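Design request, tokens follow.
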């Protein structure tokens, strides 16, 4: 009898290959449009029929460099995320994540794990004012560019460029930077998810156009005006700029609705009961409107005998029979003497328990930039004031976003991939502490160097980490910080897992220049071990987990020790999946049989650790993937 055929797939070396995924999806919809694995556009056009726009002139949004931005988006990431337990708090139990690294590379790596799972994205990207544009993308080698700029590769120190306004591609460069990141962001959002983007006048017009391109114009929700200052700037040359914008798009605006804001004491105070109505507090509401209504021009008589009609150009909101019914039920207010223009009594007990969010957010309600700076200084101790960032968003502003766009007890994931000094993470921790929520944050920040590096703080990412750590420490000192909440969400999650973007643990193929057989043989010999020199087991396991689509909140634990072989188990409780992995040099058939794996189990090991017989048996026993 012949031995069973070996069937083992290898672990993916890259992450975030959107082009491959899109092609698979297209093939599923239009299999006839593919010839020898390639798209036949002529066939695809035939299948789409009238849906194809063949007009020579049509509305479109383009800029210099758009094609490169698309190529950058389609370039898979060959990086990984390395865990940093020493910089973390409660690494083994927390669901909060902080990642240091270029956000586009990180988004590509997270795509498989978090696509369609994020409830809210809030970002505060560079406003493109000429001095804070620090994402110089290179579509040919995005990871290499990042590693060089952050000093992780030998060539050239921590020089991050700005996008000078004198540049001929000033707006185009900003759009090219934002496009692939926003595209990836949309993939992350759940069907009921929404994105809030802070921006100012420099790029709000381009942002709207770009968001229409990525999210669809039909998914625009609103543009919020945030009053960011509390006093005018008398030094302003033209106008004192008092506001910024927050642009809001939903994944599906047809089904997304904001959460009503809690009623405030000030809102309730507007309700009174001057006539001692047994239905208690009420406030008057105008019964007329400018909307034409054919039955809205009748005359009514007050208790004092005085008659009333709507003023010219206005109409009663209800027909006469309904008006008389309301008056009979004492829901019409004629004034204290019964001779005022009638108004409808709206009772506090009958209004909605929440307030519909408005698009004007005043600093009294959500804070201002000075408050944001004060909060930063309260939680981060700077040695040099030159490193203090002035344009920090106050946590109260982002808490308002959380109140509108998340729920208290569904474990909503909140993503901020322009995390800056950590205001969003701070806001999530604050809001959970206030309402007992169990939201989780994922914050991503480039390690942009500070103007004057300090002993502890050398980059903006360092500021964010310290801030998050200090906020958590304050809440842990709170006597109630670990008590079980009333809504059953359990203890507060007062922890954070830290990761760092880094080169893959898998050895990259560097190619052979002279194409000679001996050269290929020599190069192949170097790749006998597929892992880089000095690899660490935990780093390799995390890379495998990420590229298999496991959450960053997954647990890694030693599962078994069989005949000297260490077996690890990775458990993703959020997604209900797990796998086992062994990184030892050799696995025997005897050990393989003791694993008790079934066809539904995933097992990962080094390709060189198995001989053909052991590999064939294991591939029949479970889903086998090799490194």
């Amino acid at each position: 009898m012949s031995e069973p055929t070996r069937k083992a797939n290898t672990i993916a070396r890259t992450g975030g290959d959107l082009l491959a995924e899109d092609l698979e999806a297209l093939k599923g919809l239009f299999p006839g449009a593919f010839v020898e694995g390639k798209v036949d556009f002529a066939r695809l056009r035939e299948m789409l029929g009238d849906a194809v726009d063949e007009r020579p002139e049509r509305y479109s949004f383009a800029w210099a460099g758009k094609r490169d931005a698309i190529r950058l988006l389609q370039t898979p990431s060959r990086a990984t995320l390395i865990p940093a337990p020493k910089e973390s708090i409660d690494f083994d139990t927390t669901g909060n994540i902080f990642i240091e690294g270029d956000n586009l590379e990180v988004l590509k790596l997270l795509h498989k794990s978090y696509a369609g799972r994020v409830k809210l994205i809030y970002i505060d990207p560079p406003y493109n004012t000429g001095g804070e544009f620090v994402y110089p993308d290179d579509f040919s080698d995005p990871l290499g560019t990042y590693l060089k700029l952050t000093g992780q590769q030998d060539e050239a120190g921590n020089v991050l460029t700005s996008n000078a306004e004198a540049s001929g591609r000033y707006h185009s460069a900003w759009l090219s930077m934002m496009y692939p990141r926003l595209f990836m962001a949309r993939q992350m959002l759940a069907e009921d998810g929404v994105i809030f983007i802070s921006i100012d006048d420099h790029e709000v017009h381009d942002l709207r156009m770009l968001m229409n391109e990525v999210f669809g114009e039909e998914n625009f929700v609103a543009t919020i005006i945030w009053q960011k200052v509390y006093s005018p700037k008398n030094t302003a040359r033209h106008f004192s700029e008092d506001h910024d914008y927050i642009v809001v798009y939903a994944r599906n605006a047809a089904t997304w609705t904001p959460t009503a804001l809690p009623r405030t004491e000030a809102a309730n105070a507007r309700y009174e009961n001057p006539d001692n109505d047994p239905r208690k507090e009420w406030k008057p509401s105008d019964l007329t409107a400018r909307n034409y209504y054919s039955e809205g021009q009748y005359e009514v008589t007050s208790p004092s005998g005085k008659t009333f009609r709507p003023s010219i150009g206005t109409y009663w909101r209800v027909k006469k029979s309904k008006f008389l019914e309301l008056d009979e039920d004492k829901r019409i207010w004629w004034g204290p003497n019964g001779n005022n223009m009638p108004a409808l009594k709206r009772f506090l007990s009958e209004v909605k328990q929440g307030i519909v969010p408005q698009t004007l957010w005043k600093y009294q309600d959500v804070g201002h930039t000075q408050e944001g700076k004060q909060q930063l200084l309260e939680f981060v101790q700077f040695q040099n004031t030159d490193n203090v960032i002035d344009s920090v968003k106050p946590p109260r502003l982002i808490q308002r976003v959380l109140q509108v766009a998340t729920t208290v007890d569904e474990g909503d994931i909140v993503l901020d991939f322009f995390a800056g000094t950590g205001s969003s993470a701070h806001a999530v921790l604050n809001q959970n502490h206030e309402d007992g929520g169990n939201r989780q944050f994922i914050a991503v920040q480039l390690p942009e160097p500070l103007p004057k590096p300090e002993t502890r703080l050398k980059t903006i990412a360092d500021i964010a980490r310290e801030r998050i750590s200090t906020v958590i420490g304050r809440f842990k000192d709170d006597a109630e910080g670990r008590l079980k909440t009333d809504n059953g969400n359990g203890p507060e999650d007062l922890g954070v897992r830290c990761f760092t973007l880094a080169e893959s643990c898998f050895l990259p193929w560097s190619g052979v220049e002279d194409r000679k057989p001996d050269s290929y043989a020599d190069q192949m010999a170097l790749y006998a071990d597929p892992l880089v020199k000095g690899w660490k087991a935990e780093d390799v396991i995390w890379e495998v987990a990420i590229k298999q689509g496991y959450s960053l909140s997954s647990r890694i634990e030693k599962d078994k020790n069989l005949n000297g072989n260490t077996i690890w188990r990775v458990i993703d409780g959020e997604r209900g999946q797990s796998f086992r992995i062994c990184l030892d040099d050799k696995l025997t058939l005897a050990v393989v049989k003791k694993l008790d794996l079934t066809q539904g189990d995933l097992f990962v090991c080094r390709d060189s650790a198995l001989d053909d017989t052991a590999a064939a048996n294991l591939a029949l026993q479970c889903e086998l993937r090799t490194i």
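Comment from the thread starter after seeing the answer: thanks! The chain has four domains: 18-73, 79-263+355-503, 265-352, 519-626.
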